[in-house]
Amino acid sequence: NTVQAQFNSDAIIFPDDDGELGSSCIRETDGRLGICTKMPDCRGAEVMLIDFCKAHEQTVCCLLETLYTSIDNRFADDGVPQKPEVLHQDVPQSRDNHASQALIGELYEDERRIKWRCGGSLIAPRYVITSAHCIFSVNIPTYIRITGNDKEQQAIRQTDALVDDVYIHPDYDPYKLYHDIAIVRLSKAIWDFHPVYLPTTNSNFMREPLHISGWLNTPENLEEFHFVSDSVQAIPKDVCSKYFQIPELANGIIENQICGMLAPNSSLVPCSGAFLGPLETQSHAIVGIPSFTYGCDNDRPFVFTNIASFSPWIRTVIARP
């Protein structure tokens, strides 16, 4: 029961009203995977599958490539980054320096209190990326809070959702410090905020400075957030490995990890109680997920999971029905 039509010389399909925003879809024109997305939210949409979903709004089967924007195309022809607004510490004032980040926690039975565990990032309307050690627990997280500027960039806002499912990388071992990555599927699609940019496997994020953000308090509402962003200096893996001569890192720091030193005066020191967000480039692509460090001072590197190394797995998870 579909109706064929034409739009910009591309095939458009109006299927039955059984679709769902944020769910995966397959384009009938070429069989490629995508995400059911509101048309204005699909950057660079090409051939599109349009339906009216349950919300009766025009949507497109947005290619995963348009949701996973490579940071490479944010560099000018001469390789110099096209840098947006410079980041500053404390509460951010624009969407670019407060991208769509998440707090992940557990909702108590009385549904009045939340125990926050860690940070994450919105990578698609129904998916948040985080560390596996955050998810791997007796009690899996049940509650997500997304914060950031709204799409009109008028104000810092928040929206909450329940956890629908969790996906821990199959190679993660809680007794080792590798493959520390997980994805959380939300109970509903979040359309108020832009997903963050993700790198591709061939992205050279070392070409520009890195920074990390986080919250210093355990908030019950948005007004209690104390959001900061500090610089991170990447260091070579062989140098980093010398700091961690431990059984959990039998192979040292490997290719799917990133090492970085926080600024000496950083307020995001270990043991500060901060919920750390992602490691980002100045082009605002997230390249690392906070994984581990040792000690409570800034005299050791912080190790991050290299997101680009897990791009195929991330795409597979998000493409699930």
TrEMBL record:
Q: Which SUPFAM superfamilies match?
A: Trypsin-like serine proteases
Q: Which UniProt keywords apply?
A: Disulfide bond, Hydrolase, Protease
Q: Does the keyword Hydrolase apply?
A: yes
PROSITE patterns in the cross-refs: TRYPSIN_DOM
Q: Which GO terms describe its molecular function?
A: serine-type endopeptidase activity
State the superkingdom.
Eukaryota
Q: Name one GO biological process term.
A: proteolysis
Is Protease one of the keywords UniProt gives this record? yes
- Record domain Peptidase S1: where: 118-319
Q: Name one Pfam family in it.
A: Trypsin
Indicate the family of this protein.
Answer: Belongs to the peptidase S1 family. CLIP subfamily.
PANTHER family, alphabetized = GH08193P-RELATED (PTHR24260:SF136), PTHR24260
Q: What is this protein called?
A: Putative trypsin-like serine protease
Q: Which organism does this sequence originate in?
A: Nyssomyia neivai
Taxonomic classification: Eukaryota, Metazoa, Ecdysozoa, Arthropoda, Hexapoda
